[in-house]
Amino acid sequence: MSDNQHSTDLTTPGASQEVFADPGMPEHKHRRADHEPAADKRAELQVVVLFVISILGTIGSLIAYFAFRPDGTTDGTRFSTLTLGLGMAFALLGIGLAAVHWAKTLMSDTEVSEERHAQRSPDEVREVAVQKLQDGVKDSGIGRRGVLKGAALSALALFPLTIAVPLVSSVGNDWNVGKFRHTRWEKGMRLATDPTGRPIKAADVTIGSVFHVIPDVSEEERTSHEWITEKAKAVVLLIRLDPRDIESDQSPKGQTWSHEGIVAFSKICTHVGCPVALYEQQTHHLLCPCHQSTFDVANGAKVVFGPAHRPLPQLPITVDDEGYLVAQDDFDQPVGPSYWERLK
């Protein structure tokens, strides 16, 4: 060990312990805005611009909400969602960046340390603390920065409109949940592949295969504005199992709802409505990717794991004279999540 090095044994009882002096607070580094009026004014202007961006984002989201309403098509819904989301993003991002930039450039950043003391300070100490808070408000410059104060208050006051206006305007919408009790499926309607609309023959479905299915409707209906809503309720997952593996096909009156091991279930999770489309062939389980609800398609798509409370509704199927798969009727129960008119 060199002459200018030493060690202190802190493990041996009675050993001397080296005491370090309190290094104190590091030297405070002043920002340019603290001593340059031009830099201070520039920082204030930058914060104002960020708040103005938030205000413009709020106005833009309101314009987008009313000007670009969904027209029933996929592209229309996508564009409406995109414009509304961008407006809300700029509205919230402007407020966040303005607050950060304000704190880093304009508010007081002087370091303060205090000795630990009892939880309740004496009255005179509390008065000093209150005075410091008041000094902090004064240091922030909010009282003498009228433009900045106006921009901040305007941005904070307007932003809630991005949420409140769509929410309030939806009060007059159709809240009839009974429409989820029935879908486009009806007796004799063929099952078709999604999105091509090609009817499916039972002979084309091999054991272990999975088909994404929609009702076989006319081309005119598939291109209509109403189709996207009807399709959303009627989407089906078609799977062929070994008939010996099927424990139940949910037939309440004893009729067979599957055809030679082919079963069809709604793709809409009964938890919150996510698309259930992850099939594990070895276990015959369907997994919802949103919250991991798992359904056993060999046993009537009953829930075996996760937060869902109800099995997936089953579409009763058979074949027609030409060998095409057709629906025997609509789903056996309402599709989608449980709602207030149901017990679960």
From TrEMBL:
Subcellular location: Cell membrane
Cofactor: [2Fe-2S] cluster
Region described as Disordered: 1-38
One Pfam family per UniProt: QcrA_N
Transmembrane segments: 47-67, 79-100, 147-168
GO molecular function: 2 iron, 2 sulfur cluster binding; metal ion binding; monooxygenase activity; oxidoreductase activity, acting on paired donors, with incorporation or reduction of molecular oxygen
Gene Ontology terms: cellular component: plasma membrane
Predominant location: membrane
Gene3D superfamilies xref list: Rieske [2Fe-2S] iron-sulphur domain
Record field: compositional bias (Polar residues): 1-15
UniProt topology in membrane: Multi-pass membrane protein
Signal peptide stretch: none
Domain of life: Bacteria
Keyword list, A-Z: 2Fe-2S, Cell membrane, Disulfide bond, Electron transport, Iron, Iron-sulfur, Membrane, Metal-binding, Oxidoreductase, Respiratory chain, Transmembrane, Transmembrane helix, Transport
Role summary: Iron-sulfur subunit of the cytochrome bc1 complex, an essential component of the respiratory electron transport chain required for ATP synthesis. The bc1 complex catalyzes the oxidation of menaquinol and the reduction of cytochrome c in the respiratory chain. The bc1 complex operates through a Q-cycle mechanism that couples electron transfer to generation of the proton gradient that drives ATP synthesis.
Family of this protein: Belongs to the Rieske iron-sulfur protein family.
Protein name listed in UniProt: Cytochrome bc1 complex Rieske iron-sulfur subunit
